[in-house]
UniProtKB/TrEMBL annotation:
The lineage of its organism: Bacteria, Pseudomonadati, Pseudomonadota, Alphaproteobacteria, Rhodobacterales. Coiled coil: none annotated. Pathway: Carbohydrate degradation; glycolysis; D-glyceraldehyde 3-phosphate from glycerone phosphate: step 1/1; Carbohydrate metabolism; erythritol degradation; Carbohydrate biosynthesis; gluconeogenesis. This is Triosephosphate isomerase. It comes from Paracoccus denitrificans (strain Pd 1222). Substrate binds at residues 10-12, 169, 207, 228-229. Keywords: Cytoplasm, Gluconeogenesis, Glycolysis, Isomerase. Gene3D superfamilies: Aldolase class I. The active site is at 93 (electrophile), 163 (proton acceptor). SUPFAM superfamilies: Triosephosphate isomerase (TIM). Belongs to the triosephosphate isomerase family. The keyword Transferase does not apply. One of its GO terms (cellular component) is cytosol.
Length: 244
């Protein structure tokens, strides 16, 4: 089985009901995309987006709690995401690792909870600029993969997104060789540990735009993208989907 191709959008804390018009535009312009398309809107928009897209795009959450229910004000359980219409959930995004001090251990527990609820976990890893400059990138990615990916991960229930922290929202991207090096490492580490590593969809994320998408998608072991800013407008996300 070849890895699936996935164009994933992360709307972060952007959008109200009016933003769902972008879904109509996206579906009108790309009625039969050649890849799987996923959008992870704020939690308030998951149900209406799922209803609006009627299965033509997948909808996901941006985080979930490791527990199934209980006294966790402001948090969302994986089964609740699923109930609202999600098929996926982004976990371990660098903004959560930074803003909420999430650890690999917590990301791993959340991913296991997502699997238990029947969600595909999109697990994010990535080095900071300081770590890259210090020559630590491959060690950081190896450690995050080992720590954040649960033992039950398979190519069917898990997607890995390589997102260098310094490339997110900055307009800067690694060179093709740098992306290729990390993706080859991830493929090798997943294969060594989980067996079906060759089948995992590996995404690149960090300042993907219509103008650089085709070049990024041509890099070995890149099976798609996790897109932040450029996923908010159909006129930007559409060409990225078309390039995949
Ligand atoms: C992200 O936050 O996952 C991301 C990749 O953001 P951007 O595309 O805006 O760099």
């Amino acid at each position: 089985m070849a890895p699936r191709k996935l164009a994933a959008g992360n709307w972060k804390m952007n959008g109200t009901l009016a933003a769902l018009a972008e879904i109509d535009r996206l579906l009108a312009d790309h009625p039969a995309p050649g890849c799987e398309v996923l959008i992870c809107p704020p939690a308030t928009l998951i149900h209406p987006m799922a209803a609006r897209s009627q299965g033509r795009i997948a909808v996901g959450g941006q985080d979930c709690h490791a527990k199934t229910s209980g006294a966790h004000t402001g948090d969302i359980a994986a089964a609740q995401l699923r109930d609202a219409g999600s098929s996926h959930v982004i976990l371990g995004h660098s903004e959560r690792r930074t803003d909420h001090a999430e650890t690999d251990e917590q990301v791993r527990a959340k991913a296991a909870a997502a699997h238990e609820a029947g969600l595909v976990a999109v697990i994010c890893v990535g080095e900071t600029e300081v770590q890259r400059d210090a020559g630590q990138t491959l060690d950081v990615i190896s450690a995050q993969l080992a720590g954040s990916v649960p033992d039950g991960a398979t190519a069917a229930n898990t997607v890995i997104a390589y997102e260098p922290v310094w490339a997110i929202g900055t307009g800067r991207t690694p060179t093709s060789d740098q992306i290729a090096e990390v993706h080859a490492l991830m493929r090798e580490r997943l294969s060594a540990r989980l067996g079906d590593g060759a089948d995992f969809a590996l995404l690149y994320g960090g300042s993907v735009k219509p103008g650089n998408a085709a070049e990024i998608f041509a890099i070995p072991h890149v099976n798609g993208a996790l897109v932040g800013g450029a996923s908010l407008k159909a006129e930007d996300f559409g060409p990225i989907i078309a390039a995949l």
